[in-house]
Amino acid sequence: MTVAQWDGRSLAADLAYVKRVTGLSTRRGVLAPLRTVTIAALGGVGTLTHYNYDAGVVVRAHVQGGLEATTVDFPELAAAVKAAGRGVVELERDGDRLVVAGPDGRSSVAVFAKAEDVPVMPTVGGTAVLVADTAVFATAVGAVAPAAGDDVTLPMLTGVHIDADDAGVVSLATTDRFRLAATELTTAAPVTLEAPVLVPAKVLAAAAARVAKREGAVSVYVDGGNVRVSGGDSDVVVRALDCQFPRWRNLLPGAGDDRMRARIAAPDLARRLKKLSVFSVRVTMAADGVRVEAGDLETGQVSTTFDVAAHDVAGRVVGVVAGYNPEYLASLLACAPGEVELTWSPTAPTSRPMTIEFDRVRHLLMPVRLPGAEPGAAAA
Length: 380
Fold this sequence. Notes:
A hairpin with a 4-residue loop joins strand 20 (289-296) and strand 21. The chain has six helices and 25 strands. The protein folds into three domains: 3-117, DNA Polymerase III, Chain A, domain 2, CATH 3.10.150; 128-249, DNA Polymerase III, Chain A, domain 2; 252-365, DNA Polymerase III, Chain A, domain 2, CATH 3.10.150.10. The longest helix has 15 residues, at 8-22. By secondary structure, the chain is an alpha+beta fold.
């Protein structure tokens, strides 16, 4: 019998990542083969593998020793690793049991008896449609993920729309009907994507968050109806969403469009907005700042007021009053590392979307109707 030695803390974190990126359900009602994970160690590399038809992942780690590929129930393995402690954890196959031992205890889990029932992860090869630095990729995905919807009855709004051209420009876009986020990044290996692909946003965001902590490059492959995100110590395979993403490019203001502009520090405003628990806030633009008022705006009872500095404020935008959902506004502002440029339509600033722009990122946010406001009111 051979023994593999894992770092207990890293193994627990990798198991949590497998669950997060694949949406693996640990409920007893789920078919047993879809609750399994396969663990193995060979040549100093340990792997965790899970696939459930919708998404799959292979996570790699440096380990000592060896362990033949062993399939077990995911919740049972996670519980055993947690019980073993955070030091060095030893895993050993003992007949039809997998023994997990660590500084805090020793336990065993049953080997899954029907390995032939466990779904096999498809191979997603071909040419990468995107090759980028891990930090660049993670930043781009992080900038668009907040605008993705979570309503499963509208699956076309729950994904990240990815398109690529032969000039090496890859675009990412998301929308939930109230927010729209779009960005572009340059791939190191230009290739034209035959058709845009829609990748589940939660899966892509989880994969991006992991590679952000690793150095190197990340590659995205599209093969048929599957997408693979490969970076550093993990490979994620997910089934693309088979639905039509809304036409979004014509919703963004054109380069030559007349817009009213102002600049603010996004992190400060986002931090303050996150503390509010109201449906809408009233935003009033001044020559040197933004005033935010929250409370029962229907009755005029304002409970919270604060000001955030602004500069380069266009004269036409001074005095504009508009309403926004604070949660949505904060989610977009939080993507920016520093200053952003806000722009409004000069003819209908309170009824048409506000844009938030920084670097190569563009966000749109629909306003909410304020009591007593006239739709389409123009700035003075």
